[in-house]
Design a protein that fits this description.
This protein is of the alpha+beta class and 183 residues long. It has 5 helices and 6 strands.
Length: 183
């Protein structure tokens, strides 16, 4: 003798327990598949070279913007801090040059009494070689000059910077002003 289970109206032959169990099984299957796809996607992306390159590009851009702004900022009231910042953000020949001229730069800036504040308004990484640890950044900078006496002025400048990867992150190795009207 066979036992017949109760069924739902409109779904002849499907037992009540079977329908609820089927819904739970389907939900569980969908959840497991989504978790598996998420884990696979994460694992695939984590080892992706493009992701590493993108992170390096972002680091270069941030370091370039900060370095260029720092080298265009000086306050005669805080010369040691500001000129020390110049040295902290540079490496190679640029660092050596700023080290050699440190005392003369400090005397000249103190005598002028003028303060400058550089703000990078736009920048882009134009070259990046992660294996060699070199990069180039271009930037437009708004420089506000506040003389000891007189009215403050604002000037816009363009720069091209070479960066090198060091043990302390990316630093400026060269900084060149790009005249307006050239590429």
């Amino acid at each position: 003798m066979s036992r017949r289970l109760p069924s739902f109206p409109g779904l002849p032959g499907l037992p009540a327990v079977g329908r609820a169990g089927l819904a739970r099984a389907a939900a569980l299957t969908v959840a497991v598949v989504l978790c598996a796809l998420s884990a696979w996607s994460y694992a695939d992306t984590r080892g992706d070279d493009a992701l590493g390159y993108g992170k390096a590009r972002d680091s270069v851009l941030t370091a370039g913007q900060r370095g260029i702004a720092r080298l265009n900022t000086v306050d005669p009231a805080h010369l040691d801090r500001d000129l020390g910042g110049w040295l902290d953000t540079t490496t190679g020949a640029l660092h050596d040059q700023l080290s050699r001229t440190h005392a003369a730069d400090a005397a000249s800036l103190k005598a002028s009494g003028s303060a400058t504040r550089g703000t990078v308004t736009d920048a882009a990484v134009t070259e990046l070689d992660t294996r060699a640890g070199t990069a180039e950044v271009i930037a437009t900078v708004q420089v506000r000059l506040t003389p000891r006496t007189g009215t403050a002025t604002t000037d816009r400048k363009r720069f091209e910077a070479d960066l090198s990867r060091t043990g302390h992150g990316w630093k400026l190795a060269a900084l060149t002003a790009v005249p307006v009207g050239t590429s």
